[in-house]
Amino acid sequence: MASDKNGFEIPDQMRDFAEKSVDQARKAFDDFMAMTQKAVSSVEGSATAVQSGATDVNRKTLTYAEEHVDAAFRFAQQMVRAKDVEEVMSLQRDYMRKQMEALGEQTRELSATATKAAQKASDAAKD
Fold it and tell me: Is 6 within the bounds of a domain?
């Protein structure tokens, strides 16, 4: 047993218990910090994956917007050169059909890109 100058003694069992308690608290804290660091890394990985996916979607969207503006200018040029109402109607019909086809394809591509981005983010969050 340990004693101090005043005659106060700490039983060995209590000292062992206190030492074990400190060791357990230290281990619990170390485990908590390890889990926290893992969670932070996971969030950072998810954020990077999300940013990458958002960049892909943004690039595609910008490309599609440019394509639509280009098509609108070509259509306007054709309309200016049209000789009669029948040609105007034909140009309008062709333009609308092509734009709807392009929109359908672009929607499918954007959906696929967004799905890939979401999957990457989900995978990054799991790691």
Answer: no
Q: Which domain holds residue 42?
A: 12-126
Domains in the chain, number: 1
Nearest-angstrom CA–CA distance, 65 and 102? 11
pLDDT tens per residue across all 127 residues of the chain: 454 556 667 788 887 888 888 888 888 888 888 888 777 666 666 666 667 777 778 888 888 989 989 999 989 999 888 888 999 999 999 999 999 999 999 999 989 988 888 887 777 767 6
Cα–Cα dist 94/17, whole Å: 86
> What is the C-alpha to C-alpha distance for residues 82 and 76, in angstroms, rounded to an integer?
10
Calculate the alpha carbon distances from 32 to 22, 37, 39, 106, 117 in Å: 15, 9, 10, 46, 30
2 forms beta bridges with 10
Within a domain: 55: yes
